[in-house]
Amino acid sequence: MIRIALLGVLLLLAACSSAPVVDHPALRQQIIESALGQLGRPYRYGGRDPSGFDCSGLVQYAYSEAGLLAPRDTRSQREAGKRVAFDDAQPADLLFYRFEHGGGLHVGLYIGDGRMIHAPASGKKVSLVEVAAPVWKRRYLETIRLLR
User: 142: which strand partners?
Assistant: First the structure.
C-alpha cells in the first residue's frame, strides 16, 4: 500500500514538471512488468500498442503504462537520456545497438540479470534475449538512462 502511494506521488510530481522523473525502484519495476506483459506480441513496423510493436514503440509503451512520457523513435530516445556504463545498467535502462544491413538503431529494454526485452524484426515477436550473446555484444552502442 505504501509502495503504491509512493509511486502515485512520484507520478504526480512527474506530471507537474518538465524535469526528468525521479528514479525509484518501484517505478523501474512497473516499466519492466509492463514490457514483460507484451512478450509474444507480434513485431509491426511503427507499432506502439499490443496489436504490434517495433523496438522503440515497445519502450514508449512500457514507459507510458508507468505514467511516463518517452520519445517515440530510437534516435530521440537515445538523445533524451543520460549515457551510463553498461556495467551500471539497471532495469528499465535502454540498450542501443546498430545493425549494418538495416542501417538503423535498435533499442531494447534492460530487465536485469543480463537480459533485455525487445521487439526484434518483421515476422518475429517481442522476446527476451541474453545481452552477452555474440550477436548483441558486437553490435552494442551504449546504455541510456531516461530516469534520473
Answer: 96
10 Å CB burial of residue 108 (0-12, 13-18, 19+) is: buried
Identity of residue 66: A
pLDDT digits (tens, 9 = 90+) for 98-119: 987 666 899 999 999 999 999 9
Please tell me the pTM assigned to this model. Answer: 0.85
Distance CA 45, CA 56 (A): 10
CA–CA distance, 29 with 50 (Å, rounded to integer)? 19
SS3 83: strand
- Fold classification of 24-145 is endopeptidase fold (from Nostoc punctiforme) (3.90.1720)
What residue ranges do the domains of the chain occupy? 24-145
Element (H, E) at 136: helix 134-137
- The catalytic residues are 55, 106, 118
**C-alpha cell of 61?**
509503451
